[in-house]
Specification:
It contains eleven helices and no strands. The protein is mostly helical and 225 residues long. The radius of gyration is 21 Å and the shape is globular.
């Protein structure tokens, strides 16, 4: 953690000139905000431009090294939370939850799916292998249908995983739900995807067969987004 935060605020040895030292003085004086742990999650999901926005004197190679260190740090944070859960299950003698926790292992690449890691860190959970398997199956085979037992995390884990991966700024993700479940689904998505470090906007669009569509309707929908 100290290595990452210090690296984000360090001037490279090759940097020279008054703009660099002016930035350093302002940073040390507190006139320029320093990155926090919450910022690290944004850097992990974003690219070099997000890191350079904090320290414009870092090269792309330095940003790559820092991002790899951030991903490693976040992975360790997830494992620390998992260790706390294991110790608690041992203390409470909950053999079922202990066994289930011990069976968890990471089955996805941090570099390929940093948004999933950010979701784990913020929700203080670790995605189970079956959940990764289902999410990857649906991502790799659009239109596929899978079946899971109740309590396997379809709504609370797998659906957010898919939404985070597909909502990449280039395409719009649409989630269909029963009208009776709409308020609960919206509240969950808004709390964990919008009002969070992931900052993914969520909108509701109630629809039924009695709605009359015209040519202006798509434009109105686009303005809402």
């Amino acid at each position: 953690q100290d290595f990452v935060l210090r690296g984000l605020c360090t001037l490279p040895d090759s940097t020279a000139g008054s703009p660099a030292w002016r930035w350093k003085i302002l940073s040390e004086a507190g006139a320029i905000g320093k990155p926090s742990l919450t910022d690290l999650v944004k850097f992990a999901v974003g690219g070099p431009a997000d890191i350079q926005a904090v320290n414009p004197f870092l090269s792309e190679a330095s940003c790559k090294i820092l991002r790899e260190a951030i991903l490693l740090l976040m992975g360790l944070m997830v494992l620390e939370d998992r260790l706390c859960r294991i110790l608690w299950h041992v203390k409470t003698q909950d053999s079922f939850k202990l066994k289930r926790e011990l069976e968890v292992s990471r089955k996805y690449s941090l570099a390929e799916h940093p948004e999933w890691l950010a979701f784990e860190v913020e929700q203080r959970l670790q995605i189970r292998p079956v959940q990764v398997k289902v999410a990857l199956e649906l991502l790799e085979n659009p239109g596929a249908v899978v079946q899971l037992n109740m309590g396997e995390g379809k709504t609370r884990v797998i659906l957010p995983m898919l939404a985070l991966k597909l909502a990449n700024g280039k395409q719009l993700v649409r989630v269909h739900t029963l009208s009776a479940l709409l308020p609960e689904m919206f509240e969950f998505f808004h709390r964990h995807l919008t009002a969070s470090l992931l900052n993914r906007p969520v909108f509701t669009l109630p629809f039924h067969r009695q709605i009359d569509l015209d040519e202006a309707a798509p434009r109105r929908l686009q303005l809402c987004l």
